[in-house]
Design brief:
It is a single chain. By secondary structure, the chain is mainly alpha-helical. The chain has 4 helices and no strands. Helix 1 (2-26) packs antiparallel against helix 4. The longest helix has 27 residues, at 98-124.
Length: 126
């Protein structure tokens, strides 16, 4: 379980950086060839997801007592934010870009897999 905890903790930190980058893009900052339309609600959600995943990753890598619960909650919260983004793109298809569609689809799969791993580990350690 230690290897899974370390892997999920490291992935959580990587996902936090990805969400922070997405928040920058949605705030109007151009990063190299990447740019996105300014969407303030997306900035708020992506920033909250980044902060949550940062806390969950920190808890897992520093072996906090709440690490497994933290990974479950932060992955579930971030997955909820991504699903809200997918719903927003579905309701307003004109706002969808190839990058935002790819981001939402990829992060949904990655966060669901991480959530499944965190659930598995939290159940097997009881």
């Amino acid at each position: 379980m230690d290897a899974l905890r370390k892997a999920l903790g490291a992935l959580s930190l990587a996902y936090a950086l990805i969400f922070a980058g997405a928040a920058l893009l949605h705030s109007g900052v151009t990063v190299g060839p990447l740019s996105q339309p300014v969407v303030p609600p997306a900035v708020v959600v992506e920033t909250l997801c980044a902060l949550g995943l940062l806390a969950g990753g920190h808890g897992a890598l520093t072996r906090r007592r709440w690490a497994w619960d933290g990974l479950v909650y932060t992955h579930a919260g971030a997955l909820g934010g991504v699903l809200i983004g997918i719903l927003a793109l579905a309701l307003h298809p004109s706002a969808a870009t190839a990058l935002s569609t790819w981001f939402h689809d990829t992060m949904a799969v990655l966060l669901a897999a991480g959530l499944a791993g965190a659930f598995y580990a939290s159940r097997s350690r009881r």
